[in-house]
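With this grant's support, we have paired protein sequences with backbone structure tokens. One protein thus recorded is set out beneath this paragraph:

_____
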Amino acid sequence: MRLTSTPIVLATLWAIASGISGLAHSANEPAPRTEEWWKKRQELLNQRAEEAGEKAEIIFIGDSITQGWEGEGKDIWAKTYAPRNAVNLGIGGDRTQHVLWRLANGNLKGLKPKAAVVMIGTNNSNGDDNSVEQIADGVKAIVDKLRSSLPDTKILLLAIFPRSENPSVQRGKVLQVNQVIQKLADNRSVFWIDFGSKFVTAEALIPRDLMPDYLHLSPAGYQIWADSIEPTLTDIIGGKTAANSATSQNLTGKWTFTIPGPGGEPVSMKMILEQSGEHISGKFERPDGNWLNVESGKSNGAEFSWTVKRDRTDGSVMTYQMKGKWAGNPGNQISGEVVTIMDGSSVTSGWTAKRD
């Protein structure tokens, strides 16, 4: 009796020591959901996969946060991932077991992507639904399924995003899961990426401008996601980075702006821009040290525009209508035209700017 049970005992001890047990439980047992909307969404994803086929370079796998690329993240998706024929395989409310079932029931049919971006597990962390070890098991099962079904696909395994406004038991549970699942990365087939700290302030709070409900992302949150995975994604896929594509640039940062002065001499000033999706805000520093705000800023990817107004001492307003595009070193240089309107007349000049 003792000899028979020894291997089982050793296996159990090894499972506990490794942190990923592999024992059967709800988080790693494939299971569908019964809601009608879920079934329809599953059918839609199967259709997407079949239509994209081998053209798809990237697939995104997850829950409502991944599905949110079709909502708050849609503009960034259109610029960054649509050109790569990416496929969104996210369903709101899904847990690891539901993703496992979907992957075995059509979500991967016909696909041979270069990369699979996986972020799943937050819905398993509710209350006592699943333990840290069980959630890790579920994530591991998904990684194993992808490796067996898509052997040539590189997996970008993302740390589960932090949640809740303040530090909480659930946020701590998510952190513990991340500590375990990061060990699944081998930097050959599976790559670990953790940028959760970008969603948390120095005071350990999650700001509403990144996660309005302290769980789901705003457009600015999706921009952080896209920017954070881009270097690894580009290494895997090859070719141009999204940051080097005119259709997916982001203007956020500090710039030195140069424009011809009254005598044709170049005049430089500081410019700070913030881009979230199509929206651009920011300010310019004038030679006298005062700042002028960027108004009505917008971007369609390849081109952008905004307006700057300056009050004059006589009570009138000087308006600068600016438009530009990426130039020179992609990601670091922009150029364009500015129409200066004053006293009913206008003058058009060229301008350039370099990222500091």
Notes: The first strand starts at residue 58 and ends at 62.
